[in-house]
Structures are given as structure tokens and as C-alpha cells.
Amino acid sequence: MAAFASPAMARDYGQQGAVFPVVEADLLTVIRNKLTDMQASGAIDRANRTLAARTAARVRRPAPVDGIVAAIEPRGWIVDPTITLRQDLRDAKGRVVVAAGTRVNPLDTVPLRQRLVFLDGDDPAQVSWATSRTTALNAKLILVKGSPFALMKAERRRFFFDQSGTLTRQLGIRAVPAVVEQQGRTLSIRELVLGRTKGDRE
To answer: Which pLDDT does position 179 carry in this prediction?
Structure first.
């Protein structure tokens, strides 16, 4: 062991290859340089224009609601929107306003004053039926497909869109046109077949 530890046994084998210092580029500097290059080449402006165009197109024509088809059979049902609170509803000071277990019907405080009419905005027959049989005062027209902006311009009337199918999913609507009306403390829902049911003549 002493022999191996002795300085006299040490040898200098020289340099066996090129030696380079370890240099790690600063991440923020790399990003900054990349952005500078993209700005100079116009890539950022092109990306911004593309994103703006896609966003505008999505606003003008939202993605159609999945699973909604044209009604081929009339269907009607009743929905009770009453819910039971799972926990206490408290005000800003922590006082209980509505206790857990209380049954609450939103129609008691916010009645549905207008019919909700769901329709396919790309179907001229449904658009004609909805606009000729309702007014802006007695119904809200809600699209599951199509461009609300194009229809507002053509019909001079406000149209809405069921974004992501939130309303149709909650109400159980699977086909259009469909009409939702308040009936007492419940909602009456009908899917209509145009030209075949009494309801399509409203």
C-alpha cells in the first residue's frame, strides 16, 4: 500500500485529447435571443395573426354541440330544477342564509319569462320556423350549430349559442328543434318534428 501511495510512483501521462471548458448557456438569454430572431423575421407577427384569425373564426362559428341531431320523432318530458343544498350557504359575515338540506327551486326567484328555443342554425327550415313563430320578446333562440353572428345579420334578431352543450346536456335535449317553457315550478321540454307535430305551428 505504501508503494502505491509513494510520489515516486506517480507518472504524467500528458494530455490525451482536446479539453473544453464546461459552459452552460443561460436559459433566459437563449429564449430572449430566440424571440428577438422571431421578431426580426416576422414569425411572431405571423403567429399572432394566425391566432387572432382562429379565435375570431371560433367566435363567429363555435364548434357544434356533439350528439345533437334533427328530431325524427316528437318527444316531451318535464324537468324539476329543484336542488338540495349539500352544505350551508353563508353570507360574507359567515352567517347561515340557507341551511344544508334545504330544497331550492331556482324558478321561485328567477322565473323563465321567455321560451328557450334550441335549433340548428345551418338548417334553413329550422331557422325559418323559429323566427316566424317567435319574437324577441317571447323567446330566446339558442343555436347548437351554425353562426349566431351570420344569423343576427340576416334576421335582424339576437341569437345565442349553447357553448359546449351546457344547457342541452343539463336539460336532456338530444334533438332539435326543441322548446323549453316554464310550467309551474318545473320546465316543460319538447323536441319537435317540423311539419308533423302540433307544436311546430307555434
So the answer is: 98
